Amino acid sequence: MKRLGLVLIAVAMLMTATRPVIAQGHLRYSVQAGLLMPMGDYNTSSKLGWVGGVGATYWLPAVPVGIRADLSYSQTAFDSAVTGFSGNTKILGGMASVVYALNPASAPARILLTGGVGIYNVKADLGGGLSGSSTKVGFGAGAAVAFKLGPSSTRLIVGSRFTTIHSNGTSLNFLPITVGLSFGK
């Protein structure tokens, strides 16, 4: 209990000390949709699927680094010739990432690198009322290019992030390829 109190005091002091710096940053929101490519063992049992999501990035002041939060939903169908099932796999997840921009925000195209950790719920529907789900930790790393759209602050973003979810000694690996729009400062 004493440690928890010390941690809370340290967090409160850090938040108070960094508040002026945090206030100088800016926030961008995004929506995206695209294809989900299963990889590894997941590729042998499932076909190409789809993915959609929303996100927000808080860009720290004076550095090309941001903190991003994403929420995504995806679905793939089983390859019935391989699995003998005609169901699907649905993945709902959230990821917190660090984003690093290779060039300035004023550039016509901005290259972004990301890496993060998230929580994912994977539900397999085998048809005939048979289904199962589990919630596990996942990791992801990827890149995107954000293109300015005219004089507005809107950007067209094309990106991908290799994601792996560890479950019961195996990994569920996939590569979403998305196109989206980003709004904000």
Oligomer: single chain
What form results from the Cα inertia axes?
globular
Number of helices: 3
What is the mean predicted local confidence, pLDDT? 85
Q: Could you say what the CATH topology is called?
A: Porin
Q: What is the structural class?
A: alpha+beta
Total domain modules = 1
What percentage of the residues does DSSP assign to strands (E)? Answer: over 45%
Global Rg? 19 Å
CATH architectural grouping: Beta Barrel
Explain how this protein is built.
The protein is an alpha+beta fold and 185 residues long. The protein has one domain: Porin. The protein is built from 3 helices and 8 strands, in the order αβαββαβββββ. The chain has helices at residues 2-23, 41-45, 80-83, and strands at 26-39, 49-59, 65-77, 88-101, 109-127, 130-148, 155-167, 170-184. An 8-stranded antiparallel β-barrel has the order 1-2-3-4-5-6-7-8. The longest helix has 22 residues, at 2-23. It starts with a helix and ends with a strand.
